[in-house]
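Q: Here's a chain of 166 amino acids. Please give me its 3D structure as tokens.
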Amino acid sequence: MTRKPLIVVFGTSVLVSLVSLLYLPPEVAIHFGAKGNPDSWGTRAFLVWFFLAMDSGLFLMFLWIPSLILRMPVALISLPNKDYWLAKENRPKFKAIFEPLWWEYGVAVLLLSLLTKALTVDANLSAPVHMNSGIFWVIFIAFMAYTLHWVIRISRAFSRPKSAQY
């Protein structure tokens, strides 16, 4: 996977945030309980800026971590078989495996944020204000299942190659 899907999902999320400024009422629900009822309120500007700041931080983290991780001290990195994978001669192979997996997970995280944002905007445009918690829980459970799948994939990707000597 390239960075392009990460950039597209982030751009879509920014667009949804900015467009929501035009449609949301001045006071909006900014948090919902498990059953979809609003339990915290704030201004439209706060909600939009919060989503923009959160998504921007996530985007930058997922964009830059693959490059930063290779500059970090090995002791600060948690990775299966890191002594092998972060050895100078194996770093290009590590980066080739890690980058697409990391960007893929970034897409999933930003999609979760985008879908949550869409549900929040939709909830604030309904009367009475109420989030469809059933859809939220389906999205959240799907994200958690994907996260488990991703963790298994990354653990397998960085298992010790059978031919590796330590």
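Q: Can you summarize the key feature?
A: The two ends are 30 Å apart (CA to CA).
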